TrEMBL record:
One of its GO terms (molecular function) is carboxylic ester hydrolase activity. InterPro entries: AB_hydrolase_Est10, AB_hydrolase_fold, Peptidase_S9_cat. One of its GO terms (biological process) is proteolysis. This is Prolyl oligopeptidase family serine peptidase. It comes from Adhaeribacter soli. Residues 150-322 form the Peptidase S9 prolyl oligopeptidase catalytic domain. It comes from the Bacteria. Coiled coil: none annotated.
Length: 341
């Protein structure tokens, strides 16, 4: 299997999530209650975007710390029409009662003009045309978890944060980060995992591959061969331009470890949300079976029948039909679940 095909398989679901919703909003982010805050993790500057109800930025409320999926994509993408929303749901669903907190990717500008990004809306180093070295060195599970532990501590010190309720939420890869974060941070009170595969990234890749493989299983076998090479750090594995072997290993191996092991250790309430047409659906169903068997009463599962990875409906050809209906419905359900806890 070529490296191009391999990379496409990995990134497809995340691309849909990040660039399908090209609904630019007029005016500036600040007009919609967005604030830009910086803090430090070790020696790294961490950029946060806080979304609050307009006029209530300093009103004490619980926070929802949200981790998006993969790729070095700026949180705020701007063009001559305005800016693209950070998430494809209406943030007003939450901001009456919560402050939403989004974390920028390391080494990626928090806001950036769309015309200077790649076709996949990725930020590349203007000097090299590649993913920034700063991002490459930090794009792995352990970095994100350790950083987010400190972000929660930072948030708890803010006068506008009700530290009695600290919600963490993540979509796709972000769900894995939040699952592990909940096992190491005592500040977390609630966890929302959306569209995440509790058996890891490679399990999702295999599910995607099986869907279009040939009768000989050529692509699936190539993926298994790749995985074996990755585990053994073979120097001839394919990886994205600009990365080195160790960086690719830390990233993909870490996110391919079964997050169900983290979920089992979580003591606080957990909501697991996913579309039944998502490649991760059966894995979440299996996790539900496991949690029932192990008498884990702190889990709630919300499968969305007939919807895919980003809560979109599918047409007759199985292609996603982008809109914000599914996302808004999911967000409303998350909010309702939080109100019951």
């Amino acid at each position: 299997m070529s490296s191009n095909l391999f990379i496409r398989i990995i990134f497809l679901p995340f691309l849909l999530f990040n660039i399908t919703f090209a609904f630019a909003q007029k005016h500036k982010p600040e007009d919609f209650g967005y604030r830009f805050v910086q803090t430090l993790y070790k020696k790294d500057t961490v950029n946060l975007v806080i979304v609050s109800k307009k006029g209530e930025a300093m009103k004490k409320k619980p926070v929802i710390l949200f981790e998006k999926g993969s790729l070095p994509i700026p949180l705020i993408i701007e063009d001559d029409r305005g800016f693209f929303p950070i998430m494809p749901f209406d943030t007003k669903i939450f901001t009456e009662d919560y402050h939403l907190v989004f974390i920028s990717k390391p080494g990626v500008p928090v806001r950036y003009p769309a015309h200077e990004l790649s076709p996949r809306m990725e930020y590349n180093d203007p000097k090299t045309g590649l993913v920034p070295q700063f991002y490459q060195e930090r794009n792995h599970l352990d970095y994100y978890v350790s950083r987010d532990v400190q972000i929660l501590k930072f948030l708890k010190k803010q006068p506008w944060v009700d530290k009695n309720k600290m919600v963490i939420a993540g979509h796709s890869e972000g769900g894995t980060i939040m699952a592990k974060l909940a096992t190491v941070s005592k500040d977390v009170t609630h966890v929302i995992s959306s569209g995440q595969n509790p058996f890891g990234q490679m399990a999702t890749i295999m599910a995607q591959t099986r869907a279009y493989d040939d009768s000989a299983g050529t692509y699936a076998n190539a993926q298994f061969e790749f995985w074996e090479k990755l585990v053994n750090k073979s120097p001839d594995i394919p990886f994205p331009a600009g990365y080195n072997l160790e960086q690719q290993y830390r990233y993909q191996y870490g996110f391919s470890l079964p997050a169900i092991d983290y979920f089992k250790r979580i003591k606080v309430p957990v909501l697991v949300s996913y579309g039944t047409k998502d490649n991760c659906a059966l894995y979440n169903d299996y996790m539900r079976i496991t949690m029932i068997r192990e008498q884990k009463k702190n889990f709630t599962f919300l499968p969305y029948i007939g919807l895919e990875h980003n809560y979109f409906k599918l047409d007759e050809q199985g292609k996603a039909i982008p809109d914000n209906v599914g996302w808004n419905n999911a967000a409303k359900d998350w909010k309702a679940w939080l109100e019951k806890q």
